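Students often ask why inverse folding is considered easier than folding. One informal answer: many sequences map to the same fold, so there is more than one right answer. In these notes we will look at a single instance of the problem. The structure comes first.
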């Protein structure tokens, strides 16, 4: 079951990358219906099928090159759903053998919700709120599957009491770091769903200004955008998109500074331990993610770099979650710190 859970985790990475690919090639509405494509199980190819599809959906003529990215993403997501349901069924069947049941069942239920968001993404014509929540749902799915894998493999680390106490004291700061990463991912989802990644084409300034004077935060972060228009390409003004982009940049700087200090503190307490590798891995994920973000802006969102940026966002999130899981059971109180009360007989002896 641990192997199947790991497989589902890796498959979720693929689904996230395919979702990014679909969005970046403007194929989010490559199939105007759900779960099929123009009423077919695959993208219409023949002249007869295309003519029938155009008759069914006259407002969205068939574009085969955009239909396939959308359908490939759906096929991968459907396969992931089947694997998750299989894991949940196995857990229920073997629940008396000590296998966790609640978490697999919750993941299966969440995948159903995620599928609904996938449907609404299409039927609501890429409404930014739904698209952003759908992206966050993908990151949530991979986090839950990672926690299930770690739990099934039972890879807990134990250290001496003094070291565990020191690491336990850092745990609240790691929680804050996790919240920062989640907030930054949410900003990235909002940036992507509103097509704001290209709002600032230069570095380190934005359109030649360190702080653009015309940024419209009210419009940029308006979560009450009306349902109905086709949001392919975005509906926000340029000033609203600049506000979103700059906020995402500031968030990246905050994450970089915070984790540089936090990981330095972890490094001091994990020398010559297996956890030191996790500190290095988290540091590498952070460095690569920042570099990919800079390359995205400098080279105007290269397709494969942008896809890698999405995948590495998940990688950074999982390394932080993994670190939290490793130190979850550590106590901040050592045995030597607990005061003892001696009896009169012990004092006399």
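Output (designed amino acids):
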């Amino acid at each position: 079951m641990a192997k199947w859970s790991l497989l589902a985790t890796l498959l979720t990475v693929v689904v996230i990358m395919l979702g990014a690919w679909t969005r970046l090639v403007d194929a989010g509405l490559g199939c105007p219906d759900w779960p099929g494509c123009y009423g077919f199980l695959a993208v219409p190819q023949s002249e007869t099928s295309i003519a029938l599809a155009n008759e069914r959906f006259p407002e969205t003529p068939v574009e085969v090159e955009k239909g396939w990215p959308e359908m490939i993403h759906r096929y991968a997501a459907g396969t992931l759903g089947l694997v998750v349901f299989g894991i949940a069924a196995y857990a229920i069947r073997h629940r008396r053998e000590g296998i966790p049941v609640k978490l697999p069942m919750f993941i299966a239920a969440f995948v159903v919700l995620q599928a609904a968001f996938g449907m609404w993404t299409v039927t609501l014509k890429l409404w930014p709120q739904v698209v952003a929540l759908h992206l966050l749902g993908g990151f949530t799915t991979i986090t839950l599957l990672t926690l299930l894998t770690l739990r099934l493999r039972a890879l807990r680390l134990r250290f001496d009491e003094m070291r565990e106490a020191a690491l336990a004291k850092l745990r609240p700061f790691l929680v804050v770091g996790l919240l920062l990463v989640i907030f930054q991912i949410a900003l990235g989802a909002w940036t992507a769903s509103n097509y704001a990644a290209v709002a600032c084409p230069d570095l380190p300034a934005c359109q030649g200004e360190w702080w653009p004077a015309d940024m419209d935060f009210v419009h940029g972060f308006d979560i009450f955008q009306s349902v109905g228009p086709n949001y392919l390409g975005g509906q926000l003004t340029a000033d609203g998109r600049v506000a979103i982009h700059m906020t995402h940049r500031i968030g990246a700087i905050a994450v970089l500074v915070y984790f540089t200090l936090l990981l330095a503190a972890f490094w001091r307490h994990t020398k010559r331990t297996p956890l030191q590798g996790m500190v290095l891995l988290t540091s590498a994920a952070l460095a690569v993610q920042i570099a990919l973000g800079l390359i995205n802006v400098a080279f105007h969102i290269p397709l494969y770099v942008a896809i890698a940026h999405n995948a590495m966002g998940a990688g950074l999130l999982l390394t932080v979650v993994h670190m939290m899981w490793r130190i979850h059971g550590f106590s901040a109180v050592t045995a030597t710190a607990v005061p003892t009360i001696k009896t009169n007989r012990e004092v006399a002896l």
